[in-house]
């Protein structure tokens, strides 16, 4: 009844409509081209939630240097910089699917994907006071990190270490890297 899969070309109308519905009133909507550019930067880390037979949400993530983030007013340049950080750029759950823990499920899926790909940290920008949702999931607020003005004055950069699985011989990053 609920599945997470890679974002496909035929998902864009739903993604753009949901993003606009979620962010337009607060001035945080990026528009279709900027959203597509995030996907082009890393199609293997952008997902769609199928829920109850329909579109239930999406998650766009891309490699981005730790303590930096995309500017909402600009499309990605596609420079392909190597980094050990995976940035959860945008996560929106459709209203009809909210309250079921699906955002957390999508983030866990992203964490598993990130670990498997060798990322050491995961970051995001909390907007509209949402840092209270991310803190219990292990994200640490980094208010000293400057953000592009496009996120608004209340946005907060957050990051967490991606712990390695017990059977994984690669050591996990020190907490100091994100803390």
Salient structural properties:
seven-stranded mixed β-sheet; alpha+beta; 179 residues; 4 helices
Give your account of this protein's structure.
- By secondary structure, the protein is an alpha+beta fold.
- The protein has 4 helices and 7 strands; from the N terminus they run E-H-H-E-E-E-H-E-H-E-E.
- The protein has a 7-stranded mixed beta sheet with strand order 1-2-3-4-5-7-6, sandwiched between helices.
- A hairpin with a 2-residue loop joins strand 2 and strand 3 (54-63).
- The longest helix is centred in the middle third of the chain and has 15 residues, at 102-116.
- The protein is globular.
- Mean pLDDT is 90; it is low at 166-179.
Number of continuous helical runs? 4
Order of helices and strands: EHHEEEHEHEE
Distance between the termini: 38 Å
Number of strands: 7
Helix vs. strand class: alpha+beta
Name the average pLDDT: 90
Low-confidence stretches: 166-179
For the largest beta-sheet, the strand count, sense and barrel status come to: 7 strands, mixed
User: Residue share in helices?
Assistant: 10-25%
Regarding quaternary structure, what we see is: single chain
- Strand share of the residues? 15-25%
Roughly how many Å is the radius of gyration? 15 Å
Strand order of the largest sheet: 1-2-3-4-5-7-6
Shape: globular
Short description:
With 179 residues, the protein is an alpha+beta fold.
Protein topology:
Layout: E1 2-6, H1 12-23, H2 32-41, E2 46-51, E3 54-63, E4 85-93, H3 102-116, E5 121-126, H4 131-134, E6 140-141, E7 156-161
Parallel strand pairs: 4-5
Antiparallel strand pairs: 1-2, 2-3, 3-4, 5-7, 6-7
């Amino acid at each position: 009844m609920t599945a997470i899969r890679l974002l496909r070309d035929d998902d864009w109308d739903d993604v753009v409509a949901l993003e606009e519905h979620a962010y337009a009133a607060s001035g945080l909507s990026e528009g279709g081209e900027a959203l597509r550019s995030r996907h082009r930067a890393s199609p293997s880390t952008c997902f769609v939630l199928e829920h109850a037979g329909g579109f239930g949400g999406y998650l766009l993530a891309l490699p981005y240097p730790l303590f930096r983030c995309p500017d909402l007013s600009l499309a990605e340049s596609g420079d392909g910089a190597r980094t050990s950080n995976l940035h959860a750029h945008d996560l929106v759950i459709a209203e009809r699917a909210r309250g079921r823990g699906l955002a957390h499920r999508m983030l866990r899926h992203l964490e598993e994907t990130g670990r498997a790909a060798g990322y050491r940290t995961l970051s995001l920008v909390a907007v509209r006071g949402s840092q209270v949702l991310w803190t219990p999931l292990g994200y640490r607020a980094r208010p000293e990190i400057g953000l592009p003005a496009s996120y608004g004055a209340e946005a907060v950069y957050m990051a967490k270490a991606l712990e390695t699985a017990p059977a994984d011989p690669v050591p996990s990053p020190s907490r100091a890297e994100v803390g």
